[in-house]
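Bumping with the actual sequence this time:
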Amino acid sequence: MGQFKEGHKKVGGRTKGAVNKKTAQWEAFAEYCVNGGLKRFEQELNSLEGKDYVNSFLNLLEYHKPKLQRTEVKHEVDNETVKQLIFVTKENSG
């Protein structure tokens, strides 16, 4: 069925545990952030004031917790249900 026979040896390709170029770049970037880049970033962020600080901080938060898609809920209720809800709310508030 398949292209290879069962029990064949792997020929070519990456060896087990080898890191590709993208992964190596991300690891180097993380190392930079941990060993000094993060301190400078924090200093730059703290040097901002007002609107600039808030905008930068909110932009940064998007990488931590992505925005949720807006959802709209539509539901039809009859007037009797609305009257009952208002009546119960007034009883509980007084």
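The tokens above came from a reply further down the thread. The longest helix spans residues 21-47.
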